[in-house]
Design goal:
Elements lengths: L1 E5 L6 H10 L4 E4 L14 H13 L4 E5 L11 H20 L4 E4 L9 H18 L6 E5 L12 H10 L6 E6 H6 L7 H14 L5 E6 L1 E2 L10 E2 L9 H8 L7 E4 L9 H12 L25
Parallel strand pairs: 1-2, 1-10, 2-3, 3-4, 4-5, 5-6, 6-7, 7-10
Antiparallel strand pairs: 8-9
Helix pairs in contact: 1-2, 3-4, 4-5
């Protein structure tokens, strides 16, 4: 696994790349604009070029943009849905401008309209975004939810249903957040539990669709449905929650981004978390031969 972290862009986009490399990241995740604002000035082409050049110069393996927090692609409210879809398209275009291969986004919440209606609206939203961005290489990755409230995507089945019903599956994928997974009720701290989780993931989403991880411990207990991140090894997941994941050869060419709490020393906590994760490695990761995955292709599901 390519270990990295979410890096702030307050000092600039190219500077985020340099900072990530300096603290030991092999990959970085960023926001391309403020996560608490709908709009933002376009990225200056010279700044985008400087970012792309920095990624190559610093030797990063991969990058991702995380979509801002405001959009809800499942909203039953027409005005909010329209605004969310336009922001989704803008974020895809910004990521493409930076030559970033993945835009990670929260699928959304049905706000009382029900799971089926919410999932169908997410599919419609993604399809609208695909139609507005022909030729874009950046893939939109649905992030699994912790299961709080009416949020969607907390089960592999819900994520799989969206993937199976979008118009172009090559434009989408999944990012798995370990804290959210644990909070949703999936335990993977033992050999048996990890194997069962992987088998379930393969039978639903399909391993080839998993293109990124968020590596976060959990402050909340198993199944609490609370999105509360903790530093690696200091939460309910503990070190055993990560040992099998980072040593699993099928994820050798997959980025894993920290989103753990930071302290007064800036990225010092990230550096410690990266050190902790690397201390769990029992071998030197090698690229998977002949492609990213060896798992079978999953047949599309036809129902929720």
């Amino acid at each position: 696994m390519w270990l990295g972290a979410h890096i702030g862009i307050a000092e600039g986009l190219p500077e985020a790349v340099v900072t990530g490399h300096e603290i030991g990241c092999e990959a970085i995740q960023i926001f391309s604009k403020s996560p608490q604002m709908w709009g933002s000035a376009p990225i200056d082409p010279a700044n985008a070029l400087a970012f792309r050049e920095a990624v190559v110069r610093e030797g990063l393996r991969s990058c991702a943009v995380h979509q801002s927090y405001l959009p809800n692609l499942a909203s039953p409210k027409k005005a909010l849905l329209t605004r969310s879809r336009k922001t989704f398209v803008d974020e895809l275009r910004r990521a493409e401008q930076l030559a970033v291969p993945a835009l990670i986004f929260h699928p959304g919440a049905h706000i009382g309209e029900g799971v089926e209606a919410g999932l169908r609206r997410i599919v419609e939203s993604i399809d609208w975004g695909i139609g507005e961005t022909p030729g874009i290489a950046c893939r939109a990755l649905l992030e699994n939810a912790a299961g709080q409230g009416s949020t969607l995507g907390s089960t592999f089945e819900e994520l799989a249903w969206v993937l199976d019903h979008v118009s172009d599956r090559k434009r989408v994928g999944v990012a798995i957040d370990t804290c959210h997974l644990f909070a949703s009720g999936v335990d993977f701290r033992t050999d048996e539990q990890y194997a069962a989780m992987i088998a379930h993931l393969d039978a639903t989403v399909g391993l080839r669709a998993v293109l990124a991880f968020h590596l976060n411990d959990s402050k909340a207990p198993l199944g609490a449905k609370l999105d509360r991140h903790e530093n690696i090894g200091k939460g309910e997941l503990g070190l055993e929650g990560f040992r099998r994941l980072v040593n699993d050869r099928q994820w050798d060419s997959t980025p894993g981004y920290l989103e753990t709490p930071m302290g007064d020393d800036g990225y010092g906590a990230y550096q410690q978390d990266l050190k902790t994760l690397r201390s769990l490695l029992t071998r030197v990761p090698q690229p998977a031969p002949g492609g990213r995955r060896t798992s079978r292709r999953r047949a599309p599901s036809s129902a929720l």
